[in-house]
Amino acid sequence: MGHHDVELTQDPAKAQPAEGSLDKVRRRAQQRKLETDQNPVLATLAGAVAAGAGAAIWGGITELTNTKIGLVAMALGFLVAYAVRFAGKGVTPLFGYIAASMTLLGCLTGNILAACLFFAKQEQVPLTDVLARLDPELVRELLTSTFSPIDLFSYAVALYVAYRFSFDPV
User: Fold this and answer.
1) Euclidean distance between CA atoms 44 and 33, whole angstroms
2) 17 lies in a domain?
3) Residues 161, 74: contact at Cβ < 8 Å?
4) What would the pLDDT profile of 63-83 be if each residue is shown by its tens digit?
5) In total, how many domains does the chain have?
6) Across all residues in the chain, what is the average pLDDT?
């Protein structure tokens, strides 16, 4: 036989792919299936709802305790992460970015709501009146006047938690 000739064999064991390569093919097929089942739109909607609920809880806890509690930010991150994970069925980092974005919005909204609740209580006016007067300049003022350096740490932990637990890497 020349070096271009192929030896034909009747041994079926030699004709089948190696066991390890079959596992790789199965894993790739499973990964493709999971990726096609992902739903980033539903994940974003669920994340927004969770962030809104978390912001309301954050505002309420802050108003009741008169203290910003960093663990509330982390809890908000978990809440958003699981909403994104289960609604979106995410297996790629995109879902981590969605959850982190929604968590940041939830944290900022929670801080703004807490400041509005505090102001409404102090001025003895309905919260709806305070919320109706919100504009971008007032929001900026509220965020800067209530900002504390520990907020950066709390937000960072919340964003990490949201990213880390929002998708199931396969």
Assistant:
1) 21
2) no
3) yes
4) 889 888 889 999 999 999 999
5) 1
6) 88
Residue with the two structure tokens 């938690």: 161
Confidence check: pLDDT of 17 > 80? no
3-state SS assignment for residue 6: coil
* Residue bearing tokens 């954050």: 58
In a domain, 106, yes or no: yes
- Tally of residues, the chain: 170
141 in a structural domain = yes
Q: What is the 3-state secondary structure (H, E, C) of the chain?
A: CCCCCCCCCCCHHHHCCCHHHHHHHHHHHHHHHHHHHCCHHHHHHHHHHHHHHHHHHHHHHHHHHCCCCHHHHHHHHHHHHHHHHHHHCCCCCHHHHHHHHHHHHHHHHHHHHHHHHHHHHHHCCCHHHHHHCCCHHHHHHHHHHCCCHHHHHHHHHHHHHHHHHCCCCC
Confidence at 11, pLDDT banded by 50, 70, 90: low
Q: Which domain holds residue 152?
A: 39-165
Query: Per-residue pLDDT averaged across 95-102, rounded?
Result: 98
Residue 99 maps to a domain: yes
Q: Three-class SS of residue 17?
A: coil
